[in-house]
Amino acid sequence: MTLKQLSISTGVSVSELNKIENNDVKDIYYSTACKIAKALKLPVETVFPY
């Protein structure tokens, strides 16, 4: 899945997803983490283990 596809699925901007992917964000909202995990069909704990 591309960042663009993930952005469309989650409503999270491509730039924000890019920052998350590259660990350029200190904190991420739990709701955002849940949207991303749901779109990837994975448990949130698997996608964001911290």
UniProtKB/TrEMBL annotation:
InterPro entries associated with the record: Cro/C1-type_HTH, Lambda_DNA-bd_dom_sf
Signal peptide (residue range): none
SUPFAM superfamilies noted in UniProt: lambda repressor-like DNA-binding domains (SSF47413)
HTH cro/C1-type domain mapped to chain residues: 1-47
GO molecular function, one term: DNA binding
Coiled-coil ranges from the UniProt annotation: none
Short name of one Pfam family: HTH_26
Protein name as it appears in the record: Helix-turn-helix domain-containing protein
Organism: Candidatus Eubacterium avistercoris
